[in-house]
Amino acid sequence: MASADAPKPSAADAPSYEAKPTTQYAMTAGGQAALVGAFVSAVQNALGSHSKGASGFLSRTGGTIGFFAAMGATFAATESFVANQREKEDSLNGVAGGCAAGFLAGIRARSLPIAVASCAVIGAAVGTFDYAGQSLRGDTESLSYEERRKRFFKQNPSSSPLSAPQ
Q: Half-sphere exposure (CA, 13 Å, Cβ side) for 19?
């Protein structure tokens, strides 16, 4: 039986959600994705055979820059919007953002089946990444510096020699 004197959890004790600024987040991610798109556009321009020269970076393959920016902004805006509506920070936000960005990629290809498949694949990939702790290295936060150092360096086998001299 619970005691009447037991403290009751208050609203201040519960973890609170801090809303994300959707527009700022989308603009930042869109700008970063545009930089990646500029790099991809420059590589496409350098590898293509044409008579445009360096201006082909914008005139021939410049659409890549806008597409990357649109995908980044769409991902960030959707992820932030879903998180703000649900008031939770978990992997489902990344699934929604990845799905929206993937769907945009399929729409660029002018194919609804590709849009749906891209939505599923990118959403699942981002959701899995978020669920795994947003790290490709695994959970290393709980390990001390010495434990991480010992795992990094090769360990000498501590086995006895196969044949001892007699």
A: 7
Alpha-carbon distance 95 to 151, whole Å? Answer: 33
* Token representation of residue 86: 């649900």
Which tokens is 100 given?
Answer: 């929206």
What per-residue confidence (pLDDT) applies to 163? Answer: 55
Closest CA to 73 of 119, 34, 121: 34
Backbone φ/ψ region at 53: left (φ over 0), alpha (ψ -120 to 50), beta: left
The answer, yes or no, to whether residue 47 has pLDDT greater than 90, is no
Q: Which two tokens stand for residue 96?
A: 């929604």
- CA distances 43 to 11, 21, 40, 48, 51, Å, are 54, 33, 5, 9, 16
Q: Which residue has the higher pLDDT, 44 or 154?
A: 44
- What does the chain come to in residues? 166
Question: Could you count the other beta carbons within 10 Å of the beta carbon of residue 26?
Answer: 21
What DSSP character marks residue 13?
T
Q: Which residue has the tokens 């590589």?
A: 43
Q: What is the pLDDT of residues 80-99, one digit of tens each?
A: 999 999 998 899 999 999 99
